């Protein structure tokens, strides 16, 4: 029988949100543009029950943080500032115990993939580009603060602070479908931050991004027969293997629950460097053996799926397609999955034809799926 689980209660979330709005949030805005500081300092209290402090540089922000009687509840950081950048400031904050879980939203005009990726990898919760919509900003601040409250509750659920990790591993129950957080991996994002990262990619209309799914074979069975701590450790081991075997891709990945990871890579060259099933399974066997755990666990991998999209829904469709491929691969172990990016066709004209599809064909597929004249 599957472990007893705790479902997400939407009604409780509404109550939490109402309670949150009654509590005054202490917000720090860091931006080198005086007009932005003045605008946010006057507008945010009108939209939300909050007190806004401002700083014109990272150095000034650190002084205010040090002098504050209590940690700030939320921070809005500009990226491009004289001296220390917003991303460097974020990195310093994440090395401070009081700000490990504090929601940080990057509020910036920088829209390139490099800055977006760096911000999320350093611990940003969300990323909003200027000019911004105040209602959207309020919504994202609420979402960030609610998530922080939930994570703090989870961290303090154990009655003993001694051996906190072991207590959480063995005593904290979770659903098989729950997206567990994996700490200590450089390029692994948590569930919500990964969704926000994908959202930014779709807004930038990038057409050279790919998503690949990696799934623990028989994950549901292993969840049923093991305790929570054992399953959590296996997922952490697999995350470590993905990071070590995919470093050359410079990809960003996340655990999505149900024994499944997603990896986002940019460009065919990097996507071509994704590890094979054999490489990941060999690394997984080594990691499991090193801690005397069962080394018979294996993974399945989908082919890379293009994230070409004009919308967030289209990008999400690519994520679902990668998951679907991994699930199918698990059900049909006899079939060997050959990633699209690893295929080496001798027919150069075929490859050229596939890579040079007309733009309006792509748009039609984005709008209508496969039900177009293209497949008739």
Written account of the structure:
The protein is α/β, with parallel strands linked by helices. It folds into three domains: 10-155, Rossmann fold; 176-342, Alpha-Beta Plaits, CATH 3.30.70.270; 345-376, no CATH class. Helices cover 48% and strands 13% of the residues. It is built from 15 helices and ten strands. It has a five-stranded parallel sheet, sandwiched between helices. Helix 4 (86-94) links the parallel strand 3 (74-77) and strand 4. Helix 5 packs antiparallel against helix 8 (191-203), helix 7 crosses helix 10 and helix 10 crosses helix 12. The protein starts with 9 loop residues before the first helix and ends in an 8-residue tail after the last helix.
Keywords:
disordered N terminus; Rossmann fold; globular; disordered C terminus; Alpha-Beta Plaits; single chain; five-stranded parallel beta sheet; 3 domains; five-stranded antiparallel beta sheet; 376 residues; alpha/beta
A few lines on this structure:
It contains 15 helices and ten strands. With 376 residues, the protein is α/β, with parallel strands linked by helices. The protein has three domains: 10-155, Rossmann fold; 176-342, Alpha-Beta Plaits (2-Layer Sandwich); 345-376, no CATH class.
> What is the helical fraction, as a range of percent?
40-55%
The count of β-strands is 10
CATH class value of the largest domain: Alpha Beta
Percentage of residues in strands? 5-15%
Q: How can the largest sheet be summarized?
A: 5 strands, parallel
**CATH-assigned fold name of the largest domain:** Alpha-Beta Plaits
- Rg (C-alpha, Å): 22 Å
What class do helices, strands and sheet pairing give?
alpha/beta
What is the 3D form? Answer: globular
Average residue pLDDT: 78
Q: How widely separated are the two ends?
A: 47 Å
Main sheet: strand order? 2-1-3-4-5
Superfamily at the CATH H level of the largest domain?
Reverse transcriptase/Diguanylate cyclase domain
The string of secondary-structure elements, in order, is: HEHEHEHEHEHHHEHHEEHHEEHHH
Question: How many helical stretches?
Answer: 15
Specify the CATH architecture of the largest domain: 2-Layer Sandwich
């Amino acid at each position: 029988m599957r472990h007893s689980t705790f479902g997400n209660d939407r009604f409780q979330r509404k109550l939490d949100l109402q309670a949150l709005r009654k509590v005054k949030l202490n917000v720090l805005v860091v931006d080198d543009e005086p007009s932005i500081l003045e605008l946010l300092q006057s507008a945010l209290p009108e939209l939300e029950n909050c007190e806004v402090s401002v700083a014109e540089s990272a150095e000034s922000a650190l002084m205010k943080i040090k002098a504050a009687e209590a940690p700030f509840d939320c921070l809005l950081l500009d990226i491009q500032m004289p001296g220390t950048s917003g991303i460097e400031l974020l990195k310093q904050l994440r090395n401070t115990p009081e700000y490990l879980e504090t929601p940080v939203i990057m509020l910036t005009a920088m829209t390139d993939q490099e800055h977006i990726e760096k911000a999320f990898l350093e611990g940003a919760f969300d990323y909003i580009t200027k000019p911004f919509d105040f209602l959207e900003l309020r919504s994202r601040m609420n979402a960030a603060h609610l998530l922080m409250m939930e994570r703090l509750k989870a961290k303090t659920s154990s009655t003993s602070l001694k051996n906190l990790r072991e207590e959480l591993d063995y005593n904290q129950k979770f659903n098989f479908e729950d997206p567990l957080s994996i700490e200590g991996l450089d390029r692994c994002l948590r569930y919500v931050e990964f969704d926000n990262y994908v959202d930014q990619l779709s807004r930038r209309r990038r057409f050279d991004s790919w998503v690949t799914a990696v799934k623990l074979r028989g994950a549901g069975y292993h969840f049923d027969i093991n305790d929570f701590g054992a399953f959590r450790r296996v997922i952490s081991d697999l995350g470590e293997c993905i990071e070590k075997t995919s470093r050359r891709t410079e990809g960003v990945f996340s655990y999505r629950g149900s024994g499944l990871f997603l990896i986002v890579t940019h460009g065919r060259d990097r996507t071509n460097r994704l590890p094979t099933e054999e490489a990941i399974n060999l690394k997984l066997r080594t990691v499991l053996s090193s801690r005397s755990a069962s080394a018979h666990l294996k993974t399945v991998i989908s082919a890379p799926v293009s994230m070409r999209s004009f919308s967030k829904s289209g990008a999400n469709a690519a994520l679902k397609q990668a998951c679907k491929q991994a699930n199918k691969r698990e059900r049909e172990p006899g079939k060997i999955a050959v990633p699209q990016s690893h295929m080496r066709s001798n027919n150069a004209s075929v490859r050229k034809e596939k890579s040079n599809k007309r733009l309006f064909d792509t748009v039609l597929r984005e709008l209508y799926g496969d039900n177009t004249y293209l497949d008739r």
